[in-house]
């Protein structure tokens, strides 16, 4: 196959040395060319589904068994290309006006992420505000509707881009003219989204702890306003397609044991891409928390295995101390790109802090003014 390609290059007066370039160089140029031509683009993604709730649906804002939480995410992907995608994110959210007398309360949150990659350090900086309305349908179920929105800025060090006109027959010479008539520029637009979520929870009461069975479903839609991406002064532009998300998760404590199962399924559509990520964590509890005072927290460790269709197998390790948690993941690439990556996919880590409603004393503020 390689000999045929080299013969083709010679017949068309193209130096075979170009084929012999390091594969990572070719891939980088191809990725940057895609950015330049304003072709279809897709959003960031995290392998740790359970640690990226606000990027799955704004309805998950404040929709958890606690009062506030903060999650920091970091991901690096495809390091074999030399200039990997690096994504950093922060999620802050909480529930406000929770009270035993009321069946509804408000969720509020903030998301920030920065994604950068390539020789030109093409970056996306997003800041979003989230708000949700959460309604308790019964002692076992609740429903949420959420909205999000904020500015997004795309930028790059465009002089670092490399074009075919800069190939001098032996190598790429960045001092040569690019032959391009486009003038790239910084781009800022407003982005909005919405979502719905539902949760059903049952508890089996015991003296040492309550055994929980819960299921949660969420849907989301991001880029509802189809933002206009015009990287150049040219009249050509691209509309960012809507990203739809469909998510289901659960927590199933096995009664009388220290084992829990936490499955996750996430299906996303953003024209023309489709992505399915599914798998489960198996959790083992080393220590129970105190039900009344909450002075002692549960300590759990979890091992997870996930599969993202036609892309990667994902191994995860979770260490959860109740208030603090750390989750580490590694993607093993199985897509056609594995020829370049040699299986190396992405590393991901998340840190979570949350104020939980896991004990009677922790809920004391909810009992105020309930008479």
Walk me through this protein's architecture.
- The protein has a single domain, classed as Beta Barrel (Porin).
- Helix content is 8%, strand content 49%.
- A 14-stranded antiparallel β-barrel has the order 1-2-3-4-5-6-7-10-11-12-13-14-15-16. It has a two-stranded antiparallel ribbon with strand order 8-9.
- By secondary structure, it is mainly β.
- The longest helix has 14 residues.
- The protein is globular, with a radius of gyration of 24 Å.
Write the layout of secondary structure elements.
Layout (H helix, E strand, L loop, with lengths): L1 H10 L11 H14 L29 E12 L7 E12 L7 E14 L4 E15 L4 E15 L31 E18 L6 E12 L5 E2 L8 E2 L3 E11 L5 E12 L2 E15 L11 E10 L3 E9 L3 E10 L4 H4 L2 E13 L15
Question: What labels describe this entry?
Answer:
single chain; 371 residues; mainly beta; Porin; 16 strands; 8% helix; globular; disordered N terminus
Can I get a quick summary?
With 371 residues, the chain is mainly β. The chain is 8% helix and 49% strand.
CATH 2nd-level architecture: Beta Barrel
Summed up, the helix count is: 3
- CATH H level, superfamily name: monomeric porin ompg
Percent strand:
over 45%
Question: Strands of the largest sheet, in order across it?
Answer: 1-2-3-4-5-6-7-10-11-12-13-14-15-16
Q: Taking all residues together, what is the mean pLDDT?
A: 81
Alpha-carbon distance between the two ends:
80 Å
Largest sheet: 14 strands, antiparallel, barrel
Order of helices and strands: HHEEEEEEEEEEEEEEEHE
Decide which structural class fits the backbone. mainly beta
Count of beta strands = 16
What overall form do the CA principal axes indicate? globular
Can you tell me the CATH topology? Porin
Unreliable sequence segments: 1-41
CATH C-level class is Mainly Beta
Summed up, the domain count is 1
Radius of gyration, taken over Cα atoms and rounded to an integer in Å: 24 Å
- The percentage helix is under 10%
